[in-house]
């Protein structure tokens, strides 16, 4: 279903979101106070607008109230990001998602009602660290400081073994959510089917337990 989004701030983060949403066929209003940024995004947004996101009157005039979902991607100018978020929440926008620059920025955004707060550099840094430290990790989702979901490649070590033999929950305290075999995702893998090198495990657990599983079982 086609949805409507407004994005305020077209730096690297805001413009990437804008391009992707537009590419997915959604209606996207791209806003920045820098004319050059507006020119660059023009072919990748439904509408563009040169405006200051801290200017309440300007936001009202463009009918930002009609948007159900607004992304504030002004991060460097923390004051502007906070003020803009405050206006949007005061106007009753149901979903205001904001990029935070640091921990203090995050805390203030939380207090003023931001519905989701992003730390893209921090999250990407964590993901890259995971990839760097294990060649088996294919993908990785951080659930909290302690828990994640990882997609891990099975090595020849598991060849011919079954899930019963791996006994992942009892030995490592992790849960297998799905197994990808020959490109097919199986969310209810049989406990007694033989596993092969190259099978991919999608598994949830604490970071410590997941590391043990990778090192000892695969
Ligand atoms: P990134 O790290 O994603 O590149 P930046 O903080 O560098 O993020 O980019 C922020 C963008 O937000 C810039 O394009 C800047 O012109 C824009 N911007 C900054 N302040 C405002 C504001 N008050 N209103 C609208 N756009 C703004």
From TrEMBL:
PROSITE patterns membership = RCK_C (PS51202), RCK_N (PS51201)
Where do the coiled-coil regions begin and end?
none
Per the UniProt entry, what is one GO biological process? potassium ion transport
Give a single Pfam family match.
TrkA_N
Which residues does the UniProt record annotate as the domain RCK C-terminal?
135-218
Q: Which residues form the RCK N-terminal domain?
A: 2-118
A molecular function (GO) held by this record is:
monoatomic cation transmembrane transporter activity
> PANTHER family from the entry?
KTR SYSTEM POTASSIUM UPTAKE PROTEIN C, POTASSIUM CHANNEL PROTEIN 2-RELATED-RELATED
Q: What is this protein called?
A: TrkA family potassium uptake protein
Q: What is the originating organism of this protein?
A: Salipaludibacillus agaradhaerens
**Source lineage:** Bacteria, Bacillati, Bacillota, Bacilli, Bacillales
